[in-house]
Write a structure and sequence with these properties.
Rossmann fold, Helicase, Ruva Protein, domain 3, 15 helices, alpha/beta, binds magnesium ion, binds adenosine-5'-triphosphate
Amino acid sequence: MESINSLKNRFLTEKNEAEYRLSGKNYEVAMKHLEAAGKLLGEIYRRDINPQRREEYKQIRNQLEERFQECKEALGLAPSRPAPARPAPRPVAPKPAANAAAPKQAQGKAKAQEEDDGVNYMINGIDVKQFLASESRDKNVMFEDVIGMEREKATVRGELFLTEEEKAYKQEIGLKSKNFILLYGLPGTGKTFFAMALSNELRQFSGEDIPFFSVVCTQLKSSHVGATENNIIALFEFTKQFDRCVLFMDEFDAIGQSRQKASGDPTAVTTVNTLLTQLGGFDSNPNLLFIAATNCPYNLDGALLSRASPKIEVPLPGGEVLYGTLQRKLGNLVAPDVDLSAVAKKLEQSKFSNRDCSNLIDEIKRKLFEAHRVDDMINNVDSAMIASALREVKSSVKRDEQIALEEFKAQFAEN
Ligand SMILES: Nc1ncnc2c1ncn2[C@@H]1O[C@H](COP(=O)(O)OP(=O)(O)OP(=O)(O)O)[C@@H](O)[C@H]1O
Ligand SMILES: [Mg+2]
């Protein structure tokens, strides 16, 4: 018999195909995919006895029916046309008691191994620890350390930092909370830095010890059939142990690349479907804040992109941000005649990222150190040291990447 996971994958393929056709106004083909999706959903509903999921299936069925109705109206068809198959009603099993303690017991079929810190890292036979970045979180980085990006900080504050009353009101009016943020921008602009600061701010705001798990997506990839998908499932299952947690996935394009573009790679389809299931579909974790980061959002799959909100651009730093960084890190070392704002302007014109700027500052400090070694009376950075460092450290920004990003922004920009 076909497994539920396989049915779910097939369902998502049909549903996504229907969405894709709808976006191209190809209603007839969309209806065929909606019908197929409806049948698969019926089968999944009959096989899955989890009462919470069965409620979700009903909601998804309603969405399918709405889409189906849209197609009928667009094609001017009679209302007698058959709608997607409805899942047969079945008696609902009693709801399992919620476990409020953090971390929760591992759920589902996860065969878990208890570790000293009370967290289970062995999920479905996979050691999730191997994927987690060792310096999972720099606990000291806060929004005040992120120079500039005030609008972006305000956006996430408005979306995520909610009082209990605000949360309750959102629920009352049926407004879903955002739980999938996409950070995109050129290399070294500060996506990881921003994600860390955000998770620390969230922890401070809520007063809860919200764990932050950081994963570089290339680590999840495997050449063995089905292994990438299983790694992703294990990772998301792992997060279900916590009442609340943040999962940060860096280099998200490594696993979330467009299924259309990756037509030569059949695993791209199942990998994206697995991600969709974990993020907004059947097995999603409502306690999870998911943050994805990428340098090339234009390579991401459309279905993933449409679920990410807010999509936040982490831009190249402007002159003021660069000045702030120079001032903060070099201010007390520079000679009185050095004009740091002129240096910042030059860096902005040369398209320096924050990382390029940090590299330049390190190089300048190295020059000072060398000069001080020769003559211990030299304790200041002078213009010659800066000019010399500028000859060695260049911007890492590539023109074609910048152009591709501009095009993406024109289509998808939210901030
Ligand atoms: N807004 C900022 N204010 C101050 N420093 C920053 C800011 N953004 C980034 N930095 C500095 O630049 C460094 C590089 O940033 P980070 O590693 O977050 O970039 P990234 O966008 O994640 O890069 P990549 O695309 O290569 O993963 C950080 O370690 C931090 O020191
Ligand atoms: Mg990064």
